[in-house]
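Why do we bother with holo predictions? Because pocket geometry can differ from the apo form. Keep that in mind while you read this record for protoporphyrin IX containing FE.
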Amino acid sequence: MTMTSYAISNPTVNGRPLVETALVKAHIIAALCFFIYGLLAGLVFALQFHNLYPFVGVEELSPGRVRMTHTTAVAYGFLVNGFMAGLHWVVPRLTRRPTLSKNLGWFVFMGWQLSLVVGLLGILAGHAQAIEWAEIPTYVDPFVVVTAAALAANFLPAIWRLGKGGPLYVTLWYFTAGFIWLALTYIMGNYFPQWLIPGSGGAAITGLFIHDLVGLFLTPMGWGLMYYFVPTMLNRPMWSHAVSLIGFWGLAFFYPLNGVHHYLYSTIPMFAQYSAVIATVGVELVVMTVFINFFVTLRGSGSALRDSLPIRWFFVGMIFYMTTCVQCAYQVTLSAQEIIHFTDWVVGHAHLVMFGVFGLWVLGIFTELWPRLVGRPWWSHRALEWHFWLTALGMFFMFVALVAGGLVQGFVQKGLNPWEDYVSMSRPFWGVRIFTGLMILMGQVIFIINMVKTARSPKPVEAAAVRAEGAVAPASSVATGVA
Ligand code: HEM
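The structure, written out:
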């Protein structure tokens, strides 16, 4: 199997290394720490569904609080740290300039981890804000906003300076918009429903916030990273820059209108509910640009799926992405909502898009970068395969179980059957969730052991190992398609 090479070209620009590799490494490690915590919290909460909760009577570890730390840790801790690692790797390479300041990078790193740790402890202490996805206590919010602003300030100057001199590669379009949308979205969700707009208007804003956090931050960051890593890993330009830009403007136009689709059949006016349904169909078309670009670029490189694990992570993530979109086209209709609303169908969908797509891409990026960051080849390829298969299959079967269970629950509810029936019929599906959760957790433990062993193994002779694609100019020219 050909695998990631293990040395990088990191030239010095204005007396600073182009890429702050220590920051990339730190963000990867932080991402994995929050990931393990998030998985354990998910597993513990899943036990509650079987009356096996281990912390009965401990208020700070009560199931509701632990559930909130599960979602907060995986989204803000795992995914966002993973994206930040990617940003530190990609932006300097595409702009050929280092970030604004190394110290600002460390400020952001420390600020983000501290906000999260205090936020998670605050949730456990009972200080959660009563807004879904904004549960981090209100006293931590200002720090999150300052850190997010500092993150943007660290990367945007290099992007703007490059933009003044000519066209920007689509990755940088997505990142630029993602920075601006993150600040706006976070402020909107954390302050508007609670302090300014009560009632169903506030609920509409909450729906907007939940969806925009995924669509206007995770999505542009994920798509931007995909548009950089896939061409550089395949060593060929992305098929169509024009198609990727159609995707960009489509995302900007349609995504913000989606939020109310979380509240179909609610007290929010029907015209807003119908417009959310139409906008959701619009997003379906926009996501097609990503599928087309990915699969056409991959055409003729089928062997990469066998030979390159990072590409395989992206590929499986893309298949899961298509699955979520097919699912979404169905679940956004009012007739489907009658069945699946308030069931595990939605939970299955949420796991597939958050972890099955963006989580898998982040793991692909880690698999690509780690050997190059520590300057050594992977300690064990077999362990990498185990990590891949346990995670991908765990995710797949967890999704199937939750979606199937959701349908059963939906029909049980529609038939106005007793709650006991709902619970007893759901139990087998919830059991599969625990089993597949364990598979996913085991996969990550194997990965982390592999990372530690890799970092500690003796350094090989590096002379011949610098991959052309790892050097600055070829990397950006492959990604941009320009010499
Ligand atoms: C060990 C693996 C995992 C297990 C056992 C697990 C379990 C759970 C459970 C029990 C819930 C609550 C469902 C409910 O309230 O009915 C939940 C919610 C959620 N989890 Fe996980 N989870 C796991 C991994 C992940 C990962 C890796 C991610 C994302 C990166 C994720 C994202 C979410 C999201 C977004 C929700 C909210 C779903 C919703 O409200 O519709 N989970 N998870």
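Confidence is low (pLDDT under 50) at residues 463-483.
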